[in-house]
């Protein structure tokens, strides 16, 4: 089984209780572990795969909480760095009008420093780049690009999820698009939401978006469509794999469960190239990943809701 190195942010989400108040009025917050690439590492480990998280937390109680959370889920945190800068915090509430109110206090996640010695451990394994904060600058952005380069030279399987956060890229969308392009160009697999596929391609529908983004470079595209399922595009084949009907109560982390489950399945293949040539194999994998996404929506929070291997198989 291959290891999956997941690079990016791990942070605290402070979610306001009694939603319906903007942050100025919110009084109580629930502390949750957050960060899409860390969620993906958890999803892989909970499914019995080898998720490794490469990121940076602060040398403070929030950092300890985050490390404990990942460790409990079986994630390898030996490559997670501890920084003297405080752990990154995000405060979020839904205001009365349904709009998200968001305050982001960026700390240690940007401090991840590139480790050239990792290159030798990359051989024969997989790299997942989840870009929510990684393209916002700092040492993390540099490390990100260097790990992409190392992964290419070591012929790793590379996956990319842009994790577009409108709150973080307000008035700066063009820069976000530009920064994503080299990753779309070099990755074997890209996971987009519908919003991301349209934004990054400039197309008006997801079919055209896939065509444009394949031209940039990636071989496999998955566009997650919530309860409608996932559009898969590879080698001229485009198909929607329907989702599994569930009573969804919280969709947080569904996309991370989806990509984590897909990567975990690819990590079990002898040769990852099989997934490019065998359409029915790819579709079966996406069906299973949809199931992981659906299960995640049936409980609150991201990491606690990610399915284990037995939950997925039952
Ligand atoms: P994220 O918020 O984590 O970035 P996303 O927008 O990328 O998520 P979604 O489309 O919400 O991802 O969900 C990922 C997958 O989970 C979907 O492709 C689908 O298979 C499954 N899923 C999501 N919502 C539902 C739902 N309400 N019912 C059934 N399955 C769902």
TrEMBL record:
Q: Which UniProt keywords apply?
A: Kinase, Transferase
Output the CDD domains linked to this UniProt entry: bac_FRK (cd01167)
What family does the database annotate? Answer: Belongs to the carbohydrate kinase PfkB family.
A Pfam family (short name) is PfkB
The segment(s) forming the Carbohydrate kinase PfkB domain are: 1-308
Q: Which PANTHER family match?
A: HEXOKINASE FAMILY MEMBER, PUTATIVE-RELATED
> Which InterPro entries is this protein grouped with?
Carboh/pur_kinase_PfkB_CS, PfkB_Carbo_kinase, PfkB_dom, Ribokinase-like
**Native species:** Flagellimonas meridianipacifica
Question: Care to name a GO molecular-function term for this sequence?
Answer: kinase activity
Protein name, entry field: Fructokinase
């Amino acid at each position: 089984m291959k290891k999956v190195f997941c690079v990016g942010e791990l942070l605290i989400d402070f979610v306001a209780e009694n939603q319906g108040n903007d942050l100025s009025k919110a009084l109580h917050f629930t502390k949750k572990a957050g960060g899409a690439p860390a969620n993906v590492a958890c999803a892989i480990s909970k499914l019995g795969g080898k998720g490794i998280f490469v990121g940076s937390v602060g040398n403070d109680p929030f950092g300890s909480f985050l490390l404990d959370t990942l460790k409990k889920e079986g994630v390898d945190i030996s490559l997670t760095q501890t920084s003297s800068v405080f752990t990154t915090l995000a405060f979020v509430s839904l205001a009365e009008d349904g709009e998200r109110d968001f305050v982001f206090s960026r700390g240690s996640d940007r401090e991840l420093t590139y480790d050239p010695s990792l290159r030798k451990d990359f051989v024969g394994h997989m790299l997942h780049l989840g870009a929510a904060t990684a393209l916002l600058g700092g040492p993390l952005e540099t490390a990100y690009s260097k790990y992409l380069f190392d992964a290419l030279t070591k012929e790793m399987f590379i996956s990319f999820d842009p994790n577009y956060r409108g709150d973080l890229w307000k008035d700066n969308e063009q820069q976000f698009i530009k920064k994503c392009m080299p990753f779309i160009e070099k990755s074997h697999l890209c996971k987009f939401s519908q919003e991301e596929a349209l934004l990054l391609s400039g197309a008006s529908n997801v079919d055209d978006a896939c065509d444009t983004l394949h031209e940039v470079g990636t071989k496999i595209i998955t566009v997650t469509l919530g309860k409608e399922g996932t559009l898969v595009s590879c080698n001229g084949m485009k198909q929607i794999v329907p989702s599994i009907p569930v009573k969804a109560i919280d969709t947080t982390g569904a996309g991370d469960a989806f990509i984590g489950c897909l990567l975990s399945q690819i990590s079990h293949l002898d040769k990852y190239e099989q997934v490019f040539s065998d359409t029915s194999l790819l579709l079966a994998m996406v069906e299973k990943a949809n199931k992981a996404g659906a299960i995640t929506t049936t409980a609150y929070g991201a990491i606690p809701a990610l399915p284990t291997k037995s939950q997925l198989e039952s």
